Amino acid sequence: MTPTSNIKLFIQGKVFKADGTNLDNTDFTAVTNNFLPSLFSQRRIVLNGVTITQATEIYNFRSYFETVLTYCSDASATYRTIAFWYLDDGDLLPCDPTSADAKNKISITRWNKIKQSKGVQL
User: Fold this and answer.
1) Quick check: is 85 in a domain?
2) Within a 13 Å sphere around the CA of 38, how many CA atoms are in the beta-carbon half?
3) With contact defined as beta carbons under 8 Å apart, do 60 and 40 qualify?
4) Count of domains for the chain
5) Is 60 left (phi over 0), alpha (psi -120 to 50) or beta?
6) In a domain? residue 84
7) How far apart are CA 30 and CA 12, in angstroms?
8) Pairing relationship of beta strands 50-51 and 120-121 according to DSSP bridges
9) 85 by DSSP, 3-state: which?
10) Cβ neighbours of residue 13 under 8 Å, at least 6 residues apart?
11) Cβ proximity of 109 and 86 under 8 Å
12) Is the distance from CB of 41 to CB of 59 less than 8 angstroms?
């Protein structure tokens, strides 16, 4: 039997208010760019009791820079969007995503994916 290194992580969830109720259309909350790695503050991979990657408390920052510096624009426009990778393209604050003159269209894309506490899959 040949060992494989295909490991997949599937996360399903939704963003909601602190009191547990769903977001509504007036909640202009969006998740951060590169949301999937931002869910974790550190990661460590252990195989057969041997650590093969160092745990670090800045994993989310490392992952962001790795994506910016490593992946081409084709990857950013296709499979990297699975991790909510949408590179911002304008001024974000102040921002009403429902306004016609909103500047950051990519942030609005992320907002549309979670508004009203829609379920997301990463």
Assistant:
1) yes
2) 11
3) yes
4) 1
5) alpha
6) yes
7) 16
8) unpaired
9) coil
10) 119, 120
11) yes
12) yes
pLDDT of residue 59: 72
Q: Phi and psi of 22, rounded to 5°?
A: -70, 155
Q: What tokens appear for 118 in the block?
A: 């829609």
State the pLDDT at residue 62.
76
Under DSSP, is residue 50 helix (H, G, I), strand (E, B) or coil? strand
Is 10 inside any structural domain? no
Instruction: Please answer whether residues 81 and 36 qualify as being in contact, where contact means their C-beta atoms are separated by less than 8 angstroms.
Output: no
28 backbone dihedrals φ, ψ, rounded to 5°? -90, 65
Convert the pLDDT of each residue in 21-68 to its tens digit: 888 877 777 777 777 777 777 777 777 888 877 767 777 777 777 777
Percent of the chain with pLDDT over 90: 1
Contact 33, 85 (CB under 8 A): yes
Q: Which domain holds residue 40?
A: 33-121
- Quick check: 117 pLDDT over 80? no
Can you tell me whether residue 121 is helix, strand or coil?
strand
Q: Can you tell me the mean pLDDT for 83-89? A: 74
